[in-house]
Amino acid sequence: MNPIADASPAAPAARPDDGPLWRADPDGSALQFAEVEVPLDYEDPDGEHITVAVGRIPALDPAKRRGVLVAFNGGPGGHNAQGRLMPLRLAGTAVHEVYDLIGFDTRGWGASAPVLREVVQGKAPWSSRPADEDFAQIAEDVRATEEGAARAGGTLRAHITTRNVARDLDRIRVALGEDRISLLAYADATYPACVYGTLFGEHVDRHVFDSSVDPGGLWRGQYMAQAEAIRANVDAWAAWVGERDGVFGLGGDGDAVIAGIEETAAALHAEPFCGLDRTFFDNIVGNGAQHRPLWDQLADTVRGLRDRSHAAVEAAWLFAASEWEQPAPGQTHTSGLVEAITAEAEWPTDLETYFADMRLFRERYPYGNGVMRAQPWVVAFREDKPREPMTRVTRERYGPGLVVHAAGNPMLSHAGGAAMAALVDDRLVTVEDDGSNEMFAVRGNAAVDALVTGYLVDGRLPEADVTVPGTPRPAVGPARAAGSGPRLPDTEHVKHYLTEYRAAARRR
């Protein structure tokens, strides 16, 4: 099977006479919910069907209404997405005045035929710098995860493909009675959005890809690029700290700061402090460097851990916390969507390919658990594959739009966003010196919000690519004020910032 195929959309569905049956949100929000029935297998349209859960908030000003705006986010395939709740993110904004806001749980997620996998407890030590002798067990843990995903996912997961997500979206369009829809896709959801445009471009009005995937790097290349982006953030932070050695005392330039970090990492590996070992420390540095406004707090935390100060411990744990959802103790099953849909892409089957990359990443990209981005993935062991390949993305049947991307986004590298903009010939909006993921109506960046709103509402596109300022770095000079005592991290400030940042993408 060709791993990347050209567009071949399914025949359009007839619109149901009565359209979706909308009902109020039982939690009392402005949302209305409905289900749209779609074929499990579009090659067998009269066979088994599933339902896709849809959410809607009608336009605030019916007289100005210009159509529907479908907004979606989440990891590959829609994992961990807001799905049918996405309209709440945009409720009350200027785009809400003129659009019905639509969200949906993609097939395999939420209330749309969720695909599951068994929770498997790994046996390999959790390490940001695993030893060679642990590689085989890491691979066996991944193999066990795939076997559990196959048992729990059954025949459903073969139908969890990006093309089917795009076809489902077109069924939603038909059910809504719309000839064209506008798309606002965030993060990994930019891939199904551009696949929809490839298959059904004549039905696309306006589109914004916010924090885009790299269309040429799906999926292993994108994961590995995360490690590179994390390291770039760490190096930028280290250079900034080095320019302020009189304040932080971590070294006089970026190289000296990194050397000091490595010394602290080695010390914590030999003798952990308050439960914090080298792996936690590597994650503190990698996670913290993403957030420019906390660069001073990260420096104070790193210095505190170097000096084994208990005053730095709470802030350290805040920086170390993972943003990824983890199964609860005793939970036997969890979502298997990412494991299902990433199998569309080609992955190496030779474990030595992964192990060689792990050795490189262990040395070059230890921060933010970079080695994990290079280790074996379940697809290397998968026996059944999705019934369709990746799609060769084009933009032949709809107009240009916007790609918005922060320069320091560690989850989706800016190079990938630039590649998407070049491929579909969109205007690229770069958010300078910013590590945020998902920007519009999320991070409070006035320039981004104005550009996206102007395009979605009035059709105004910049004449060329645009660069806008990101969130400022801390206002810290090169020298400490006379008579000031030792610097300590402001734990409450760190907690407030990280809580707000992580909640912003899920705020309702």
Automatic annotation (TrEMBL):
Keyword Hydrolase belongs to the record: yes
UniProt biased composition (Low complexity): 466-487
Region (Disordered): 466-491
Record GO terms (molecular function): hydrolase activity
Annotated keywords: Hydrolase
Location of the Peptidase S33 tripeptidyl aminopeptidase-like C-terminal domain: 382-467
Classification via InterPro entries: AB_hydrolase_fold, Pept_S33_TAP-like_C
Pfam families in the cross-refs: Abhydrolase_4
Tree of life domain: Bacteria
Entry protein name: Alpha/beta fold hydrolase
